[in-house]
Amino acid sequence: MAEIHALSPRLANQIAAGEVVERPASVIKELIENSLDAGADKIDVEVDAGGIKRMRVRDNGCGISEEDLPLALARHATSKINTLDDLEGVVTLGFRGEALASISSVSRLSLTSNSSGSGAGWCASSSGREMEVELTPAAHPLGTTIEVKDLFFNTPARRKFLRTEKTEFGHLEEVIKRQALGCFDIGFQLTHNGRVIHALRKATSLAERERRVASICSPAFMENAVYIDTEAVGMRLHGWVALPTFSRSQADLQYFFVNGRVIRDRLVAHAIKQAYRDVLYGGRHSAFVLYLEVDPKVVDVNVHPTKHEVRFRDGRTVHNFLFSSLHRALADVGPKDHLHAAQ
Ligand code: ADP
Ligand code: MG
C-alpha cells in the first residue's frame, strides 16, 4: 500500500464534484440557486449543445465584491451561514459552499460580477487544471454572470456518462421549469443554441401565475385544474391540482414545493396518491403544482447535497394535512360516480 497523503485541493474538489455535479442540469440548478440567494429577480440562462459545450447564467443579484471573488470559488467558503445554529433555520438554498469549487474543478469556469452597480466589475476564471484564480477588471452591471464551458473536459470517465444534447437539454429545461414554478416573482429566460425556449416574466397576480403555470405545464393542465388554498395546524397548502379529467400515463407533471424548494418525498407522494385513489383509474398518474409552507424549524433540508429530500419533524401531521386538504378538494368536484360507471 502507498503512504497516506493529503489529496490536492483540485482532486478533492473533483471528488466532491462527483456528488453534486452529475450533468449540465445539476450545474444550472446550483447556479440558479446562487442567483436566487443573491436576491436576483431576473435570471437569464443561455446554453449551447444541451449545456455540454457552454452554459451561462446571468443575474441582477447583489454581486460579489473583488475581495470575495476568489473565495467564491474556494471549497467550503460561503457567505450564507456562520454557525451550526444558523443551519437550524437556514433559509438560503445554498449553504455548503461547495458548488462553485466543484463545478470549476471539472470545467472551464469564469465568473464576472459587480457588487457596487458602478458598471465596473471583476472577472475571475479558473480552468479546472489548477485551482488558482486570475482576477481581471471587466465591465458588468450590478449582478453576476457565470459561464461554464466544456463540462468534464478533464474527467473523461464522467464525460462518458453524458447523454445526447437533447436528453441533457431536457434535464436542464426541467430544472428551469421547477425554478420558474417555485419563484413566480423572478423573471426567467432560457435560450438554447440561440433560440429562446422560455421567456417568463415576473408573475404577480393569480392570473399571471396561472399563465406561467399553463406555459410550463401545458394549457390543458390549467384548464383541468382547480386552485386550492388551505391552512391548518400551522401549515398552508396552496396550488393547482388537476382533476381526473386530466391524468397522465407518467408521473411527469408533479411538482411539490416545501418552503419554495422542490422536493421528492415518499410521505408526500403517499398522501397525494391516497387522496387521488378514489378518483383516478389504476395506472394513471395525477398532475399537480403544490406549495406547502411550514415553519422552517419543523423541516430538515440538510439531508442530501442535491437537497431534493427533506425530513419532517412530524410526518404524521403533514400526511394528514395533505391528504385531507386534497381529498376535500377532489371530492368537491371529483366525478367519482361517473368513473366507476365507466369502469
Ligand atoms: P453556497 O451557495 O453553498 O454558499 P457556492 O459554491 O454555490 O456555495 O457559492 C459560494 C459563494 O459565492 C456563495 O456563498 C456566495 O457568497 C457567492 N456567490 C455564488 N454565486 C453568486 C451569485 N450569483 N451572486 C452573488 N454571490 C454569489
Ligand atoms: Mg450555491
TrEMBL record:
The UniProt record lists the keyword 4Fe-4S: no
Domain of life: Bacteria
GO biological process: one example: mismatch repair
Any one Gene Ontology cellular component term annotated for this protein: mismatch repair complex
Tagged with keyword DNA repair: yes
UniProt keywords, alphabetically: DNA damage, DNA repair
Residue span(s) of domain DNA mismatch repair protein S5: 213-331
One Gene Ontology term of the molecular function aspect: ATP-dependent DNA damage sensor activity
Role this protein plays: This protein is involved in the repair of mismatches in DNA. It is required for dam-dependent methyl-directed DNA mismatch repair. May act as a 'molecular matchmaker', a protein that promotes the formation of a stable complex between two or more DNA-binding proteins in an ATP-dependent manner without itself being part of a final effector complex.
Family membership noted in the UniProt record: Belongs to the DNA mismatch repair MutL/HexB family.
Protein's recorded name: DNA mismatch repair protein MutL
